[in-house]
Amino acid sequence: MISKKRREKGITLIVLVITIIILMILAGVTLRLTGSTNGVLNGAKNTTDKYDSLKTYEEDSIQKLEDKMGNP
Q1: What's residue 59's pLDDT?
Q2: In a domain, 61, yes or no
Q3: Does residue 2 register a pLDDT over 60?
Q4: Global pTM?
Q5: How far apart, in whole angstroms, are the C-alpha atoms of residue 32 and residue 36?
Q6: 41, 35 in Cβ contact below 8 A?
Q7: Would you say residue 13 lies in a domain?
Q8: Backbone phi and psi for residue 5, each to the nearest 5 degrees, phi listed first
Q9: What count of Cα atoms within 13 Å lies in the side-chain half-sphere of residue 44?
Q10: Residue 33 resides in a domain
Q11: For a surface tag, which of 4, 20, 50, 57 has the fewest beta carbons within 10 Å of its beta carbon?
Q12: pLDDT digits (tens, 9 = 90+) for 27-65
Protein backbone atom coordinates (compact mmCIF):
# COMPACT_ATOMS: atom_id res chain seq x y z
CA MET A 1 0.00 0.00 0.00
CA ILE A 2 1.35 3.43 -0.99
CA SER A 3 1.34 6.06 1.70
CA LYS A 4 -0.56 9.22 0.84
CA LYS A 5 1.78 11.30 2.94
CA ARG A 6 5.15 11.38 1.32
CA ARG A 7 8.03 12.68 3.35
CA GLU A 8 10.39 14.95 1.49
CA LYS A 9 13.86 15.24 2.89
CA GLY A 10 16.21 18.04 2.00
CA ILE A 11 15.46 21.04 -0.17
CA THR A 12 13.93 21.01 -3.58
CA LEU A 13 15.43 22.58 -6.67
CA ILE A 14 12.75 25.29 -6.67
CA VAL A 15 13.62 26.37 -3.14
CA LEU A 16 17.30 26.47 -4.06
CA VAL A 17 16.67 28.64 -7.13
CA ILE A 18 14.46 31.04 -5.15
CA THR A 19 17.13 31.35 -2.46
CA ILE A 20 19.82 32.12 -5.03
CA ILE A 21 17.61 34.78 -6.68
CA ILE A 22 16.96 36.46 -3.32
CA LEU A 23 20.68 36.46 -2.51
CA MET A 24 21.47 38.00 -5.91
CA ILE A 25 18.93 40.77 -5.33
CA LEU A 26 20.38 41.52 -1.89
CA ALA A 27 23.92 41.59 -3.30
CA GLY A 28 22.84 44.01 -6.04
CA VAL A 29 21.19 46.35 -3.55
CA THR A 30 24.26 46.26 -1.31
CA LEU A 31 26.64 47.03 -4.16
CA ARG A 32 24.44 49.86 -5.33
CA LEU A 33 24.29 51.43 -1.86
CA THR A 34 28.04 51.24 -1.30
CA GLY A 35 29.11 52.45 -4.73
CA SER A 36 26.58 55.14 -5.55
CA THR A 37 27.20 58.90 -5.42
CA ASN A 38 25.69 59.18 -1.94
CA GLY A 39 26.87 55.75 -0.90
CA VAL A 40 28.76 54.62 2.16
CA LEU A 41 32.21 54.79 0.57
CA ASN A 42 31.79 58.32 -0.75
CA GLY A 43 30.31 59.43 2.56
CA ALA A 44 33.35 58.09 4.40
CA LYS A 45 35.69 59.86 1.97
CA ASN A 46 33.84 63.17 2.41
CA THR A 47 33.94 62.81 6.17
CA THR A 48 37.68 62.11 6.08
CA ASP A 49 38.26 65.19 3.93
CA LYS A 50 36.25 67.37 6.33
CA TYR A 51 38.13 65.95 9.30
CA ASP A 52 41.50 66.69 7.72
CA SER A 53 40.42 70.23 6.88
CA LEU A 54 39.17 70.92 10.40
CA LYS A 55 42.28 69.34 11.92
CA THR A 56 44.51 71.68 9.91
CA TYR A 57 42.37 74.66 10.90
CA GLU A 58 42.58 73.73 14.58
CA GLU A 59 46.34 73.23 14.46
CA ASP A 60 46.76 76.64 12.78
CA SER A 61 44.53 78.28 15.39
CA ILE A 62 46.52 76.74 18.24
CA GLN A 63 49.79 77.85 16.66
CA LYS A 64 48.48 81.44 16.31
CA LEU A 65 47.39 81.50 19.95
CA GLU A 66 50.78 80.15 21.08
CA ASP A 67 52.53 82.84 19.03
CA LYS A 68 50.37 85.60 20.57
CA MET A 69 51.01 84.29 24.10
CA GLY A 70 54.73 84.12 23.58
CA ASN A 71 55.48 80.42 23.53
CA PRO A 72 58.05 79.81 26.35
Answers
A1: 93
A2: yes
A3: no
A4: 0.50
A5: 6
A6: yes
A7: no
A8: -95, 110
A9: 7
A10: no
A11: 4
A12: 999 888 887 777 788 888 889 999 999 999 999 999 999
Report CA 8 to chain centroid distance, whole Å.
40
Output the CA–CA distances (angstroms, integers) from residue 6 to 9, 10, 69, in the order listed. 10, 13, 89
Between CA 60 and CA 52 the distance in angstroms is 12
Query: What ranges in the chain are assigned the alpha helix state H?
Result: 13-35, 40-69
Would residue 17 count as lying in a domain?
no
Specify the number of domains making up the chain. Answer: 1
Q: Which amino acid is at 4?
A: K
User: Which structural domain range is residue 49 located in?
Assistant: 40-65
Instruction: Please say whether the beta carbons of 40 and 33 come within 8 A.
Output: yes
Does the pLDDT of residue 10 top 80, yes or no?
A: no
Q: What is the spatial distance between Cα 41 and Cα 38, in angstroms, rounded to a whole number?
A: 8
